[in-house]
Design a protein that fits this description.
It contains two helices and five strands; from the N terminus they run βαβββαβ.
C-alpha cells in the first residue's frame, strides 16, 4: 500500500560554503536515486557563523511501504550529508497530508 508523505530536511554543523555546496550535491544525488529529484528543492542558508542546508518535497510524494521507506530515507539523508560534511547533524520532519482531519 502506498501513502502520500511530505518532508522537510535540515543539515546543520557545516563550517564553510564549499562543504555546504557539496552537501547539496550529495543530497540531490540521493533524491535522483530515490526517483524524486524533480519533486524536491534543496538550498543553502548562512546561519550562526556557519551554513545549513535545507530542503523538502515541493508537494507530497507517493511512497510504497512508507513505514519502511521513511526511516531508511532518513538514514540515507544522514549518510549522504556526512559524506560531504562529517560533522553535520541531520533532521527530517514528516507530514502525512492524507491524515489531516
Amino acid at each position: 500500500m502506498s501513502a502520500n508523505v511530505a518532508f522537510t530536511l535540515r543539515v546543520t554543523g557545516i563550517e564553510d560554503e564549499a562543504r555546504a555546496q557539496a552537501v547539496v550535491e550529495e543530497l540531490r544525488e540521493l533524491m535522483r536515486d530515490e526517483g524524486i529529484g524533480r519533486q524536491v528543492t534543496i538550498g543553502i542558508r548562512r546561519e550562526d557563523g556557519g551554513y545549513a542546508v535545507t530542503g523538502g518535497s515541493d508537494f507530497p510524494v507517493s511512497v510504497s511501504r512508507a513505514h519502511l521507506w521513511c526511516p531508511e530515507f532518513e538514514k540515507s539523508v544522514a549518510w549522504y550529508a556526512k559524506e560531504a560534511a562529517p560533522a553535520a547533524a541531520c533532521a527530517v520532519e514528516w507530514s502525512h497530508p492524507d491524515e489531516r482531519g
